[in-house]
């Protein structure tokens, strides 16, 4: 009987003390976001003059976004061919989110919406590989056609539509939803 | 005479038979107060009062084995037949006269030592809830509700309070499983419990700080004392979610040289697939649970040692339709009458899900001394590991978004002194003790709460005096809490920490007066406090599943509660029940207040919330009444009314349970003379839950082209009425008795939504569900 009791005590003492002395909580690990997008860049090339390149960038999207370089200054009644680059700078090395979206294109859609319909028109030029009734647009590359002189905003949304992509923005959830300023002169 | 009120409190939907009597000691024929009376078949139990009297009510007609136990007296076991043997006066012989080894009483519910407003589920009423989560099971009691996150996560709510304001005592150990989170369900195995007791109202004195709302005690069945091996198999199957649960238990006790040594092993497996609402399946609402536990108990003379281990492992799928990336998604989802994706049934469990393991290792020793009372020491270690996996869109990451590991060590020492008789035939009883706790928390991946270390210590004393129709109780407690949180400065990568210290003294006063044999009035006044927890203080992050950015407030003061309640209990021949009124005033009540400016992150706008303190009141009435229309037909009504208010802003509070009324009609066959079938009954029930109209005004406004709501995202759902039915019996399978219960819930397949379900914006509640519960106790050998 004694030995049973003694072994019970021993088991307890070991198991309780094993955890009690560690100070794991004092080693703080940095915040790690699997799916951060820190930087979004739009690059537009004038189709009539390839040397005319306009870029706009939003930094720190995952915290307090910096919009100081987020204005697209465009010419009226001009067509640009555009691309979007999305980057996660919280990881080392930085992650090219656009490339990850390209490889997961069958469940992603970028949606470009001007604040006023008459401001400009965006036409997506790339397609995914979804089977019929697909393929559907992806939106990593697009044509942007400006109208008359005006100012406004261009809203960019990245929709995640796993198993539900149908060419519209309705299904799924937002991975990115931000605004670039647009000045057409 | 308090006992009568206890047994009334332990009321449950049952039958009308009563067992009562007086326990006396053999030689002197003196009453034995504090002895336990326990029915083996049903798990019903009670404690004798100061005059040695006991009463067990709501028993069904049938044959029972009753155990009468008292420290240092020989346990007396008797077969009885109800309702014929409704009065049993028993004389126990002193251990010193008999030759048998000492059998120490462990049946007594810890809560029954307290003069506090309490209800419990045990025996057949507990069997009816088998297979459900703790939160859902306790809804069978008046004054209880549950706060849900979809169909698979349910947390108990006592009088409108939940999470950190409730203590769950699992097997005598304070459960610490990141309970601050609304979507963090208690990690306990229901099949281990033979009794679930809820103490309604502030009960900090005995069980520690934080219990502003109340305490839930999950108590296992007593360890076997007679040599042999026995067990029990529980099987539950349900149509909705095509759920299956199997739980097995094997236990035994040794005789001769190893007398006093007993053991138990137990395990539960639960699987459920997509839950079905009346019109569609809820994608990814699958549920996995695997639990094991083991218990070794040794007692010799007046000394006992118990080593207990349990592991609860759950994997809970979250409804995919409730996953939103931003506020815009949320409003789109709220605007949809039905979820966009409505797949067929599946057992699939994908992201988003929670994966949580909770381990408990406990060592308890106790010593009963003849003159000094009982001393119990408990040390325990709990390890809670929580991983939350969100949807991943593009990264293909296999890591969780949130990892939290909380390791808790607790140490408790309680001394219960021997009952002291006064000259006027009064009785003094009471206890005093110490509770110690330390916790370490480690986080990884996204930041929600920081790493921390805390220490807590408390000392308490409770004394009770019973004389004639009066019982008076007073308690006092002192608590000390120390908390240090560890952070990393993201810019400089330098670690830093902050420290808080709190202390507080609380007290309670209670009185019970037995007006008549069948009528008792009990009043309680108590104070309780809760130090702000680390989530209140330091939350700082996007709560994706709640679509909220939550900001902690390091300057919060402790919550202080003043709780009063009055309970009138009646146990008549036909009518019985109790009506209780309560008033809980909480100073510095901590809640999340919506900020006026939404926060912009990569996924768009999020409403921001900050932890704020106000003066809040929770007032209400619980009423449970049972009326026997005839010997076989019983009508039961359970009603809960709650009025909560933010007094500081003169407004209502969010997420307060609406009023509800649960009514049932039960017919029991008189099966006294039949051997094949017994305890045969059928019942129908109707549950009415009102629309919650006492809510902060839901307002919508435009801001930067975004629609922003204040108060809530959508108004509370309308009232609903659900019909249920149940049929049960006990039958003989060979020498064993098998208990079978067939339950149907939401039989009319009503599409409804519940205000306290955080996923109510997205989908309906589950539709019709038929479940079959079979319990088969067995015995392998009679003699070892």
UniProtKB/TrEMBL annotation, chain A:
Top-level taxon in the UniProt lineage: Bacteria
Question: Which keywords fit this entry according to its UniProt record?
Answer: Signal
Q: Which PROSITE patterns match?
A: PROKAR_LIPOPROTEIN
Query: What start and end residues bound the annotated signal peptide?
Result: 1-18
Kindly provide the name given to this protein in its UniProt entry.
Uncharacterized protein
Per the UniProt record, the source organism is Spirosoma profusum
TrEMBL record, chain B:
Where does it live in the cell? Cell outer membrane
Q: Please provide, in alphabetical order, the Gene Ontology terms of the cellular component aspect for this entry.
A: cell outer membrane
Q: What Pfam families does the annotation carry?
A: CarbopepD_reg_2, Plug, TonB_dep_Rec_b-barrel
Its membrane topology? Multi-pass membrane protein
What protein name is recorded for this chain? TonB-dependent receptor
GO BP terms, alphabetized: siderophore transmembrane transport
Q: Does the keyword Phosphoprotein apply?
A: no
Positions of the TonB-dependent receptor-like beta-barrel domain: 355-736
Q: Any stretches that span the bilayer, and where are they?
A: none
Species assigned in the record: Spirosoma profusum
Instruction: List where this protein forms a coiled coil.
Output: none
Quick one: where is this thing mainly located? Answer: membrane
**Which family does the record assign?**
Belongs to the TonB-dependent receptor family.
| Domain TonB-dependent receptor plug, chain residue ranges per copy | 116-215
The cross-references to PANTHER family, in alphabetical order and at most eight, read:
HEMOGLOBIN AND HEMOGLOBIN-HAPTOGLOBIN-BINDING PROTEIN 1-RELATED (PTHR30069:SF29), TONB-DEPENDENT OUTER MEMBRANE RECEPTOR (PTHR30069)
- GO MF terms held by the record: siderophore uptake transmembrane transporter activity
Q: Which UniProt keywords apply?
A: Cell outer membrane, Membrane, Receptor, Signal, TonB box, Transmembrane, Transmembrane beta strand, Transport
